[in-house]
Amino acid sequence: MTHPFDVPADAQVRHTGGRGALVSQVRWEHPDGSTATWESRKARKRGFIEVVRDGVVQRIMARPAVAVRLRRCNDISGFSFFLGGALFTLGALLSQYSSASLPVIDWTFLIGGFWFSTGAYVALVQEINSPRRIGTDGALAARPWRWWAYEPDRPGWLAAFVLFCGTLAFAVSLVDAFLTELTAGQTDKLIWAPEMVGCVLFLVSGHIGIIEVCHGRLRLMPRDLGWWIVVVNQVGSWLFLLSGLAAFVRPATGEVISVGAINWGTAWGAACFSVAGLAQLFERPSAPVPAAVPGDHSRPVPR
Predict the structure, then answer these.
(1) 193-211 tens-digit pLDDT
(2) What's the per-residue H, E or C state across the chain?
(3) Which of 79, 84, 100, 242 has the fewest CB atoms nearer than 10 Å to its CB?
């Protein structure tokens, strides 16, 4: 069986976790009795895998150059989601309370959408360049840098790619919002329909993200920052869906279903993504340190 992490040749795989082909966890045993566990999100976001021997937990860290790249991707992605969510929240509040002109509100959303797309794409790049093996120096190593790869069997890739597609669908809706003198039917086709596609893709991405961090089965993990991030994002996606449904324009009246639901669903949903983006800045590799080779357990790291 092909695994998403290159397990050392002398090791035996003891356990895999995930849903179907979307494997997010692999545990193997070395001849010396030590076990190592790769988890896709921890390797991608935190840059380490765990090794256990005689009950002592250690971490094999990413090579310094790999860790720096992971940190940069994580910071750019997190900041982008924070800024995109903040601008969406601002746009919704301007629409609810302010006398700001419609072009100002539309530009606020469009710029926010740009940052959402940026955050999703950088998250995809981070997954593509995540550590895939243990190098000869005993540290986690990655392939040469890539800006694109097609890897639908990796849950991190699939979640980020679907999310990126969702941001592009939102972008279509945000650009079409600048069109004027549209009929109710045209508004639903050009603005509402792509918005709903984006909402559904956000929900699908969030579900895959939860499956990844939970390794295939839904569970509570309140001590895991990554779990909180994907759950808060998923709450935001459901609020976006509520907002999108409320934005349907009734052909008979030419009015949306609920202006309040549109604005507050967008504001709170975007705030969830902004908070999760801010939290993501703390889910990143530690400062690079010398790596322990498999079998070298001289640097215990407590859980």
Answers:
(1) 999 999 999 999 999 999 9
(2) CCCCCECCCCCEEEEEEEECCEEEEEEEECCCCCEEEEEHHHHHHHCEEEEEECCEEEEEEECHHHHHHHHHHHHHHHHHHHHHHHHHHHHHHHHHHCCCCHHHHHHHHHHHHHHHHHHHHHHHHHHHCCCCEECCCCCEECCCCCCCCCCCCCHHHHHHHHHHHHHHHHHHHHHHCCCCCCCHHHHHHHHHHHHHHHHHHHHHHHHHHHHHHHCCCCCCCCCCHHHHHHHHHHHHHHHHHHHHHHCCECCCCCCECCHHHHHHHHHHHHHHHHHHHHHHCCCCCCCCCCCCCCCCCCCCCCC
(3) 100
Q: Which residues does 125 contact at the CB level (< 8 Å), separation at least 6?
A: 73, 146, 147
- Assess contact for 244 and 173: CB atoms under 8 A: no
Q: Answer whether 48's CB lies under 8 Å from 59's CB.
A: yes
Q: Which residues lie across from 37 on neighbouring strands?
A: 27, 50
For residue 287, what pLDDT is reported?
58
Strand partners, 15: 27
Token digits of residue 180 = 């004027």
pLDDT tens, 208-233?
999 999 999 899 999 999 999 999 99
Q: pTM of this prediction?
A: 0.92
What ranges do the domains of the chain cover? Answer: 65-280
Torsion of CA 229, 232, 235, 237, to 10 degrees: -50
Residue 142, φ and ψ in degrees, nearest 5: -120, 170
Average pLDDT over residues 127-134: 96
- pLDDT tens, residue by residue, 27-60: 999 999 999 999 999 999 999 999 998 889 999 9
Using one digit for the tens of pLDDT, what is the confidence trace for 69-80?
A: 999 999 999 999
